[in-house]
Amino acid sequence: MRKIYIIQHCQSEHHINNMSGGWTDTPLTELGEKQAERIGLKLKSELAREEYVLYASDLMRAKQTADIIGKHLELNVIEEAGLREINTGAAIGKTKEWAKANRNPMGERGFHIDYQEFQDGETWREFYVRVSDCMERIIHTEQKNLIIATHGGTLGYIIAWWMGFNIDMLEKAHFKASVGSISLLQTNGYQQHELHIFNETSHLFELKS
């Protein structure tokens, strides 16, 4: 049975300082570091008898989340640029207000997979292909179970890849998880791909103000 834990990175400076996300590279906040500690402790208690490999997006907020988790699990982090959030092009390093004022119009029919939100950024199709290709490389390289620290958009597309979504289905489907959440993908006895746990955040309850 293959298991893939997906961790949405913990609270980052861009969540509180009005900066846009995507490829804007910001570190964890003090709260974010505490959240990552809780994830590490939870996984240590649950995964003690299983072997895992730890991957992370190379953007600071995901890599720092993984570093803290890895400390508890005694695992080194393998950085993978393919696990980054969507490339926001011209919006990288800009404020949320700038991003809102300068994003490309979506059009009358709403979200579509070839929509490019920002100049010089990825379309959602390109983003999904990148994430899917990255996961194919990882899953064919590693024989052990996986822990992946990544971003909200990437997490959703990893789930879609695992569940075998046709790319056009993504125009009608979206998986939205929370900061510091844990999700689990696994195979069952019939070799079906399961979304076994989604958006688990009970380990963070005591940190909520």
Automatic annotation (TrEMBL):
Source superkingdom: Bacteria
Record: active site: 9 (tele-phosphohistidine intermediate), 85 (proton donor/acceptor)
Gene Ontology MF annotations: phosphatase activity
Organism in which the protein naturally occurs: Paenibacillus agri
Name listed for the protein in its UniProt record: Histidine phosphatase family protein
Pfam family, one: His_Phos_1
Binding site for substrate: 61, 96
InterPro entries according to UniProt: His_Pase_superF_clade-1, His_PPase_superfam, PGM_Phosphatase
One GO CC term on file: cytoplasm
PANTHER family given in the database record: BROAD-SPECIFICITY PHOSPHATASE YOR283W-RELATED, HISTIDINE PHOSPHATASE FAMILY PROTEIN-RELATED
